[in-house]
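Customer ticket, subject: "Can you confirm the structure for Putative pyridine nucleotide-disulfide oxidoreductase?"

Message body: Hello, I'm evaluating your service for our small team and ran a test protein. I'd like someone to confirm that this is what the system normally returns, since I don't have a reference to compare against.
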Amino acid sequence: MTERMVIVGGGQAGGWAAKTLREQGFTGEICVVADEPWDFYERPPLSKGALLEAAPALPRLFSPETVAALGITWYRPQRAEAIIAGEKTLILSSGQRLAYDKLLLATGGRARLPGSDWQRHPAVYTLRTWEDARRLKEQLACSQRLAVVGGGWIGLEIAASARKQGLEVTVFESQSLLCQRSVNPTVSRALLEIHQQNGVTVHCQAGALSLDDDQGKPVIISGQQRAVFDAVVVGIGVELNLELARQAGLEIDCGIVVDSFGRTSNGDIFAAGDVARHPTLGIAVQSWSFAQNQSVVAARAMLGDLSRGYDDAPWLWSDQYHHNIQILGIPDPDGTTLVRKTDGSALYFTLTPQGRLSQLVAFNDPRTVKLARRWMATGRDLSGVPLTDPEFSLMTLR
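Agent reply: Thanks for trying us out. I re-ran your input and got the following:
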């Protein structure tokens, strides 16, 4: 009897899992349940090229020919409503029952909003899907004043894209620093300076915001201040789509709990991408590299290949104005930050009290990120190394 692998989720994690199954020689049926009509696509371009290019195209993960060669049985646009784990069966929104041998949950997340009134206002946007990007691009073309709620990576990328189009941009961040959850304060201040230099008005510690309406235009209320905008984009993170996993009785703690092979608490169910908890950090990680690389490991494990688990350090990047910013690792709260600046680039090293690198944030210096991966993998002691000296060659630390 032909084996059937079922993937719930048509995003990056689902796409790489399907491709990996075929590359590893799986000849059975691959079914993909997706709630969008599009082929697998990447989300990072949605806040950049999809908003800036004159005629943006769907940022496909693979070429149409590659997707066709995978021989996928698509169920789209549909949702997976329930898992009958004892029968290894998935119930779809159409009412159809889909049996599986192995099941991969790559359900990702949905954009978070402050409240239902924000969801109802026609000039309030989120940016999570290709359709979101197309709608927002149309709005930006006829807007002059934009509010961005959320000073994280997605909010700052949208702010940069809007400024490139000449809009007046105001960023409201509830925390005291930009991207506070993912980088140290020194990097946060550098991000603030970049955006202020490019004409963005930034309000940190904005507190709880309220939404009002002025003749169809959204009004942001912060404390005693009211400001009218043509549009508002909310970028305050995601709500993980955990409903299916929870209904199936899978272990959940900051995401679906998986081991280094993507296996959940049910041996026939795997999880990958945003919805899966990082196996060594114990947190959910939303990044392009995690969605790709961890799903590859999970797909191999679905076929019984347990030769290599996933334990990569988190890595993400952001393009803002003329800066390429790469973030490797997470900052140690007890660590020390060292700064190295040269013409056009800057490096922010966070070292643990033991001298190990816990995070590197690199502005316009991808080569050092590659070096830093080796330092992290080997646990290299960087105590006493003159990292801040621009005359010192980091290449000697290879």
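A couple of notes from the result: The chain is about 25% helix and 25% strand. The CA atoms of residues 216 and 310 lie 49 Å apart. Feel free to reply with more questions.
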